[in-house]
Every structure is written in structure tokens, then in C-alpha cells.
């Protein structure tokens, strides 16, 4: 029985994880559930899964959750980040699903890595911001790091060995990272000035949280995933090629020196990579529709348009600068928040990232405090740029 802690339980990945867990009560148990502030959603999950503990980041939300659950279920309620970090290292937890959105998920994910947990990583921003530190924690803590991001999970499935033992990795010639292209594929940058948050969040294939949906529309997500793949599989950016594949049926491919190209295919449903990361090296059913190739009929491919989507170009530049992707990701988080609350335009997102990268002093952060300081500096720079933009 794997006792699972779900960080970000009320989100898109959290709910899909709990759906898979609920299908296999003989194998997995939801032991600790954590979220930010969504009390009603968390109360429903606690009544359904009866975890030992529930943690709300927001103290008011924790109080309200306690009132709602009182006398109905034995779940103990906690507040703040500290209990998340503690439970991520607890001997009562075997597996940690890191599915908090953004930099906010770093401390708990890092704690799980250091404590040597089976760590299912959806929270790519944590790895992108703290790459070297994160991978060192995984190695030294003896954690088993399993990628949940669909592309990286596909790469993991097509690579010769698990991430820890990779004698044949030298025979990998290229990693082909697929991108759907998002809702604005085929559009020019000029046509994107007035797109709304709802238009940006209307992803053609995937149903996801709003932050990652905007990231997919701007191709920031592919930039983050490029960095994520470099860290996970110990590759240089030049060894990874982004290929736009609008149907999101192939989730990524590995090209070997002998010309073989291995791909993982499946429905665009996160329960497949989640189930694989929960069950690896075994497999379990995930409730996902079968892939009917005849119905799918077409698989198309094209190159990404870096003029229409300059965020991906910025990521290619930032990835070569130590600390660059930490600042990139922080600036993007600030910009996406501002775009979602209609303070800036969609096309101001790349401007914010570029301005931040230009004015923050970049260096590879080697401690958590340094990562947090760089993240903070980038947020301040992005915030200052945005207040100028909002007055335009
Ligand atoms: P979401 O917005 O749907 O959910 C985010 C979750 O994080 C919520 O449960 C929220 O309560 C929680 N949260 C936010 N701040 C918190 C804090 N300070 N403390 C505790 N909990 C907090 O997001 P999502 O789409 O599920 O994405 C989660 C992560 O997974 C992101 O990093 C995203 O990039 C990654 N990811 C998502 C998908 C997807 O299909 N949704 C695919 C690949 C990767
Ligand atoms: Mg992805």
C-alpha cells in the first residue's frame, strides 16, 4: 500500500491523481491532502478519501475546513506551509505528488526529495527554478523522481532505463519535445494584443489550471519544459528539439543514434502519466478512453513560430544563463497573474519576461535561500515593469 501525499489536491492534477487513487484502493491511499484556499473542494475530498491530514496554506481556510469536517470525518486539519514541508518528509508518507502550481510548491517538493520519497513531479516551476539544487537533493536524498508532465513522462517511457540508471543514455541522439501550439497556433503576434484570459485558457486538447493554460498559449510552458527535460534527463538544450504536434496524441519522442524513433502515444488525459508515475515499474488502469487510431486519423507536425511566440525564444536564451530560468519563471508567474486579472495584455507577458531578464543580476543559486532571493528579485522587477505597462 502506497501512502500518498497530494500537494495541490484541489487542482487539475490533484483531482486527476485522486481519481486514479480512488480506482485502486488496494494499492494507494490518500494520506495527506494539501491546497491553498478552496475549502468546499477540500471538504468534499476529505469526506470522500478520509485522509489522515489535510493542510490549507491559508489559515482562514484551514479554520473553515475544520468547522466543516468536525464530527463528520477524523481528518486532522493544519494551516500554512510548515506542515506541508513536515508531512513531505514524514515516515507516514511513501509517495508525494507535487502538484502545487508555481514557485509556491518548491519547499515541500524539495523536502520530499531530500527525504528520499517517491516523488511524482507535476510542479515543473519548482524544478526549473531550483534545477541544480533540486537534482542534488534527489540524488543525495535517494528519492525516486518520476516525471508527471505528459511530455517528460513520455520521454521517461521511451528512454532505455529509469532516470537513475542510464547506461544507454549516450545512444540518445535527440529528444523531440512535442507542443500542441495552444489555442493561438497559426496566429501572428499582432493579432494577439487583445486576446482575453478566457480565450487564452481555452486549450484545444487539454483541460488544465488557468496558469498552465496561459503558459501553453504563450509557449512559456514549452520553455519551462525544455529546462525541465534538461534537468530530468541530464541533457543540453541543443539535444532537445521542440516539435509542434496539434493533436496532442504523441506526447514526445526519443531519436536514437541508429535512426530509431520511439514515441509514446495516448489520449490527452493526465491520468495516464499520473497512473504511470504512481505504478512504475508496473502499470495500472487509469480510466482513460482507449486511443482509436482510425478515428484519430491524422498526426500533423510543424516547427514552432518563434516570432509569434517570443517567449520560447526568450527561454532558449535564458536557459544558457545561470539562474536565467529561475528569473524567467518568476517573471512569467507575475505576468500571468497580471494578465489573468486583466491588468496587462497577453503580449505584455513576453515583454515582462524580457525586461526582467535584462535588469536582474543573474547567477546560479546554490541554496534554497539563494533561489528564493533570485525569485523575489525577479518578481520585484516584473512587478515594476508591469506597473509601468498598466499606466500606458
Ligand atoms: P491548478 O491551478 O488546477 O491547481 C493548483 C493547486 O495548487 C490547487 O490545488 C491549489 O489549491 C494549490 N496551491 C496553490 N498555491 C498553493 C500554496 N501556496 N500552498 C498549497 N497549495 C497551493 O493547477 P494544475 O493545472 O493542476 O497544475 C499544477 C502543476 O502541475 C503546475 O505546476 C503545472 O505546470 C503542472 N502541470 C499541470 C498539467 C495539467 O494538465 N493541469 C500538466 C502538466 C503539468
Ligand atoms: Mg506538459
TrEMBL record:
Catalytic reaction(s) noted: 2-C-methyl-D-erythritol 4-phosphate + NADP(+) = 1-deoxy-D-xylulose 5-phosphate + NADPH + H(+)
Q: Which residues bind 1-deoxy-D-xylulose 5-phosphate?
A: 124, 150-151, 180, 203, 216, 221-222, 225
Q: In which pathway does it act?
A: Isoprenoid biosynthesis; isopentenyl diphosphate biosynthesis via DXP pathway; isopentenyl diphosphate from 1-deoxy-D-xylulose 5-phosphate: step 1/6
> Which EC class heads this enzyme's classification?
oxidoreductase
What cofactor does this protein call for? Mg(2+); Mn(2+)
Write down the EC number: 1.1.1.267
List residues binding NADPH: 10-13, 37, 123, 125, 209
Q: Which residues form a coiled coil?
A: none
- Pfam families assigned: DXP_redisom_C, DXP_reductoisom, DXPR_C
Keywords assigned:
Isoprene biosynthesis, Magnesium, Manganese, Metal-binding, NADP, Oxidoreductase
Q: Which residues form the DXP reductoisomerase C-terminal domain?
A: 265-380
Q: Which domain of life is it from?
A: Bacteria
Domain 1-deoxy-D-xylulose 5-phosphate reductoisomerase N-terminal, first and last residues per copy: 4-131
Q: Where is the 1-deoxy-D-xylulose 5-phosphate reductoisomerase C-terminal domain?
A: 145-233
Which sites bind Mn(2+)?
149, 151, 225
User: What Gene Ontology molecular function terms does this protein carry?
Assistant: 1-deoxy-D-xylulose-5-phosphate reductoisomerase activity
NCBIfam families found in the cross-reference section = Dxr, PRK12464.1
What protein family does this chain belong to? Belongs to the DXR family.
Q: What does this protein do?
A: Catalyzes the NADPH-dependent rearrangement and reduction of 1-deoxy-D-xylulose-5-phosphate (DXP) to 2-C-methyl-D-erythritol 4-phosphate (MEP).
Q: Which HAMAP family match?
A: DXP_reductoisom
**Know the name of this protein?**
1-deoxy-D-xylulose 5-phosphate reductoisomerase
Q: Which gene encodes it?
A: dxr
Amino acid at each position: 500500500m502506497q501512502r500518498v501525499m497530494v500537494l495541490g489536491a484541489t487542482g487539475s492534477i490533484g483531482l486527476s491523481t485522486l481519481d486514479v487513487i480512488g480506482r485502486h484502493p488496494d494499492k494507494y491511499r490518500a494520506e495527506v491532502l494539501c491546497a491553498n484556499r478552496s475549502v468546499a473542494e477540500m471538504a468534499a475530498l476529505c469526506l470522500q478519501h478520509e485522509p489522515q491530514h489535510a493542510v490549507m496554506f491559508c489559515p482562514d481556510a484551514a479554520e473553515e475546513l475544520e468547522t466543516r469536517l468536525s464530527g463528520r470525518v477524523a481528518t486532522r486539519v493544519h494551516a500554512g506551509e510548515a506542515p506541508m514541508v513536515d508531512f513531505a518528509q514524514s515516515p507516514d508518507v511513501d509517495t508525494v505528488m507535487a502538484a502545487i502550481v508555481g514557485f509556491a510548491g518548491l519547499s515541500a517538493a524539495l523536502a520530499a526529495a531530500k527525504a528520499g520519497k517517491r516523488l511524482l513531479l507535476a510542479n515543473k516551476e519548482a524544478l526549473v527554478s531550483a534545477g541544480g539544487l533540486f537534482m542534488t537533493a534527489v540524488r543525495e536524498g535517494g528519492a525516486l523522481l518520476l516525471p508527471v508532465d505528459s511530455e517528460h513522462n513520455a520521454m521517461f517511457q521511451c528512454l532505455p532505463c529509469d532516470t537513475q540508471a542510464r547506461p544507454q543514455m549516450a545512444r540518445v541522439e535527440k529528444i523531440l519535445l512535442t507542443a500542441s501550439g495552444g489555442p493561438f497556433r497559426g496566429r501572428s503576434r499582432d493579432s494577439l494584443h487583445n486576446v482575453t484570459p478566457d480565450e487564452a485558457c481555452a486549450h484545444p486538447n487539454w483541460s488544465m489550471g488557468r496558469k498552465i493554460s496561459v503558459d501553453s498559449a504563450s509557449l512559456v510552458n514549452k520553455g519551462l519544459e525544455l529546462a525541465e527535460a534538461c534537468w530530468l534527463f541530464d541533457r543540453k538544450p541543443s539535444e532537445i528539439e521542440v516539435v509542434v504536434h496539434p493533436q496532442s496524441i504523441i506526447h514526445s519522442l526519443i531519436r536514437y543514434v541508429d535512426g530509431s524513433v520511439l514515441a509514446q502515444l495516448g489520449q490527452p488525459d493526465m491520468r495516464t502519466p499520473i497512473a504511470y508515475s504512481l505504478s512504475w515499474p508496473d502499470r495500472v488502469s487509469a480510466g482513460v478512453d482507449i486511443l482509436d487510431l482510425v478515428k484519430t486519423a491524422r498526426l500533423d507536425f510543424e516547427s514552432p513560430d518563434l516570432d509569434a511566440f517570443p517567449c520560447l525564444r526568450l527561454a532558449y536564451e535564458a536557459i544558457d544563463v545561470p539562474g536565467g530560468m529561475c528569473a524567467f519563471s518568476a517573471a512569467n508567474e507575475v505576468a500571468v497573474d497580471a494578465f489573468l486579472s486583466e491588468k496587462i495584455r497577453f503580449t505584455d507577458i513576453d515583454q515582462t519576461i524580457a525586461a526582467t531578464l535584462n535588469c536582474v543580476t543573474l547567477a546560479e543559486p546554490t541554496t534554497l535561500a539563494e533561489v528564493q532571493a533570485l525569485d523575489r528579485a525577479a518578481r520585484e522587477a516584473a512587478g515594476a515593469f508591469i506597473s509601468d505597462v498598466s499606466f500606458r
